[in-house]
Amino acid sequence: MCGIVGYIGKKDVRNLLLEGLKRLEYRGYDSSGLVVFSPTGFNVIKRIGRVAKLVEATSKNSAKGTLGISHTRWATHGGVTESNTHPHVSSDGKIAMVHNGVIENYVEMKKFLEIKGFSFSSETDSEALSNLIAYHYAKEKEDGEDTSRFFTAVRKALSHVEGTYGIAVTCVDYPDELIGARKGSPLILGVGKGEYILASDESAIITHTSNVVYLDDNEMVSMSRDGFRVVSAADEGIDPVINTIDWNIEDSEKGKFEHYMLKEIFEQPAALENAMRGRFSDDGSTAIFGGLNLTPRELRQIDRLLFTSCGTAWHSCLVAEYLIERYARIPVEVEYASELRYRNAPLDKNTLVFVVTQSGETIDTLGALREAQRRGYRTLAITNGVGSTIAREADGGIYQHAGPEVGVASTKAFTSQLLIVAMLALYLGRLRDMSYTDGAEMVKALRSVPNLVRETLKQDQHIKAIAAKYAGYADFLFLGRQAMFPIALEGALKLKEISYIHAEGYPAAEMKHGPIALICEECPSVFIATGGEIFQKVLSNIQEVKARKGKVILIHSKSCEVPDGLVDDTIIIPDAADSVMPILATVPLQLLSYYIAVERGCDVDKPRNLAKSVTVE
Ligand code: M6R
Q1: What is the DSSP string of 126-189?
Q2: Residue whose CA is closest, atom 12 of ligand 1?
Q3: CATH architecture designation of domain 3-245
Q4: What is the arithmetic mean of pLDDT over 320-338?
Q5: How far from 409 is each of 52, 363, 477, 594, 606, CA to CA, in Å?
Q6: How many whole angstroms from its chain centre is CA 480?
Q7: What is the CA(612)–ligand 1 centre distance, in A?
């Protein structure tokens, strides 16, 4: 949520910042702005709307420099206006700052600063911090300090902040220093040769260097063209660990696809292969996970699992509940992270907590993880965010290796999570009652998924045609039973997110307890039924809809027998084992929502009001 890019080095900072902002735009796109530190001081340019507007405005400005900061905003405090757009320059003109996060005590800060003579030109919480840094900067001068005055001022100001921040700060008197700091909002340092880039995520860094330092909470970094130093809030030096980004720039380009979302849908076979690579035992009867940091003996002591996360990742948790309970016979509870973190849930001492998160930065999921750890629970993360805050703070976990996901609507990260929870069900099942033969059969089923997804993707044009037929409707129901219920929820969420159509997901049989009142010619239902003993029961649910003139799109597997003329449209997916059906059933739903959104002229990759990584509460 909000993207930050800061740079100090030898290159023309303007283009570098703009290029970085374009890559981070998926984090927020209400407005954007930058400061170029030129020989004449701060050059501030801000624009409402997409980064393209800032690019246009910047091309008319001749300011040049090799130090600068920039920001693309997802509005929290204050509307989408130019004055609320970052960077915020302190009212004395000394400090320019960009901020991601929420300063909770900004009202009292503001009152204090107004008394001290500072003025405000925005409604943001962030401006209070920029002025507070300026206040401490002025005070340091009075106290007679000099060389580290700017750094000390930032550190002192931050000690008064309640809330979260990732910031990049410059001071008009320090043309050779850029400062960054984080608490609760991500910030990464790219380490180049004589140049440093500060950014909210790796995508703004990767074109310049693959060497990065993931800053931890309460750490500050000071960069010059000659080097950098990381210190703790207590001003103690920290030995930074330099990591290598494990993907390259092509992975985050759109290539031949019109949208990232479509590209990422089509990348699913590869993402699934990556999730499995090296993760099956030599005898092909179980999964292996290197990073759980728990021995099989310790895992045998666990008698309950708690899965927690947000949004699409929460749907993965619901699928985990079905699969793990079925194959491993371990009770699983699922909680929204935003609820769990504030709920005083009584948990058994032998509970193991799993957090699931594509980005590894979602603030509610992080909050739930920390709360579980505070209470002494062991926590594991399933995440695509290598080096993310959650990956670093969890006691262990499983990386998805799905590659960068840029489209705001999660697609390949979701199916890769589904595969990982199926592998986890296998692994835990084999530690308990699952036989060698059943394990080997499940491994075979899992290995077949990438090809089955390839086969499903061949329906692309058929689904596009169905989407064209249904794009004009204003309400949809998505219905499924058992493990297809979370998939119905995901189908509804995808449609809502990118096409702004009202959609609800429900367990198919639950429909008659209320939502059936919505059924009419104007409200189509998407049923997901992949066979098994409840298939006939879902057909009865479809009959109930048809009896009320509702239109029905049915996603079913090849061998299911559907009475002629029962449904209006069908999408057929390959036959496969139950453990992988959630993955196969998801693919047509992604394509359906994608093509409906395109048909309606929506901005698929940057849906209104959303941001890819939700790092505020
Ligand atoms: O990065 P995370 O998986 O933690 O993100 C969780 C949700 O914010 C995310 O899944 C969101 O619901 C997506 N927009 C879904 O497409």
Answers
A1: HHHHHHHHHHHHHHHHHTT--TTHHHHHHHHHHTT--B-EEEEEEETT-TT-EEEEEEBS--EE
A2: 311
A3: 4-Layer Sandwich (3.60)
A4: 97
A5: 21, 18, 19, 9, 8
A6: 26
A7: 7
317 is catalytic: no
Considering the entire predicted model, what is its pTM? 0.85
Q: Which atom of ligand 1 is nearest to the CA of 410?
A: 16
Architecture of the domain defined by 459-603 = 3-Layer(aba) Sandwich (3.40)
Q: Is 612 a catalytic residue?
A: yes
Nearest CA to ligand 1 atom 11: 311
**Ligand 1 site-directed mutation target among 356, 362, 389, 399, most atoms within 8 Å of CB:** 362
Per CATH, the number for 252-447 is 3.40.50.10490
| The three-state (H, E, C) secondary structure of 280-344, written as one string | ECCCCCCECCCCCCCCHHHHHHCCEEEEEECHHHHHHHHHHHHHHHHHHCCCEEEEEHHHHCCCC
**347 Cα: distance to centroid of ligand 1 (angstroms):** 26
CATH 3.40.50.10490 maps onto the chain at 252-447, 459-603
Residue minimizing CA distance to atom 7 of ligand 1: 311
Q: Which residues line ligand 1 (CB under 6 A)?
A: 309-313, 357-359, 362, 365, 408-410, 497, 610, 613-614
pLDDT tens, residue by residue, 429-469 = 999 999 999 999 999 999 999 999 999 999 999 999 999 99
